[in-house]
Amino acid sequence: MLWRAQLIACAYRYDQVPPHHLPEVVMVGRSNVGKSSLINAMIGQRLAKVSKTPGKTRSVNFFEVQGDPPFVLVDLPGYGFAARSGGELELWRRLIERYFRSSRVSLVLQLVDFRHGFLKNDRQMEEYLAGLQIPVGVVFTKLDKVSGSRRKSALDAYVKEGFRCSIGPFLVSSETKEGLGDLKSGLSLWLKE
Ligand code: GDP
């Protein structure tokens, strides 16, 4: 199942958010969680920038995806970065808050590093989304970094700690492509409902 996609907008301010009539699926996660790599792996193209320096993506990027059904995938800047000025952080916070309150969002995919599970700012994001009653799909990333024998116990431990999740959790690796098919079909099913 190949999804073609094109970048339709990069927004630094809310008035740059593009008008369209498709459902929006938003990806959020800590900087360096593997969000850009996952976007590229899902759409089989190098559209999102992969970086070794956390916190590089500052704009909100909108990709129109020719999936089944079509939708708009929204790439939010990663959270949990420190090297950013107060003024810039404030602008970012205002854009994100306004965006999430706009009722455009069908689903948020919350990316969490499978090696670490939910860290403090992942919990803050979880709580924030719960407050807005936005449905969330949890995607654990970098599955290949956890050996096969440790995967079940890691997942069991995260499930036991608890997290809010309308679909998933999905376990994926952009490196080996494991779990990508399940994520894409889960997403398609959700969007068709
Ligand atoms: P972002 O900041 O969340 O967009 O993260 P990136 O996609 O830029 O990835 C951050 C780093 O993690 C890069 O060095 C990637 O090569 C690496 N990475 C991302 N996904 C995976 C994965 O599934 N497996 C492994 N081993 N490395 C990954």
Automatic annotation (TrEMBL):
The keyword Nucleotide-binding applies. Its cofactor is Mg(2+). GO terms for biological process: division septum assembly. GO terms for molecular function: GTP binding; metal ion binding. Transmembrane segments: none annotated. Residues 21-193 form the EngB-type G domain. It comes from the Bacteria. Keywords: Cell cycle, Cell division, GTP-binding, Magnesium, Metal-binding, Nucleotide-binding, Septation. InterPro entries: G_ENGB_dom, GTP-bd, GTP-bd_ribosome_bio_YsxC, P-loop_NTPase, Small_GTP-bd. One of its GO terms (cellular component) is cytosol. Necessary for normal cell division and for the maintenance of normal septation. Belongs to the TRAFAC class TrmE-Era-EngA-EngB-Septin-like GTPase superfamily. EngB GTPase family. This is Probable GTP-binding protein EngB. It comes from Thermanaerovibrio acidaminovorans (strain ATCC 49978 / DSM 6589 / Su883) (Selenomonas acidaminovorans). The lineage of its organism: Bacteria, Thermotogati, Synergistota, Synergistia, Synergistales.
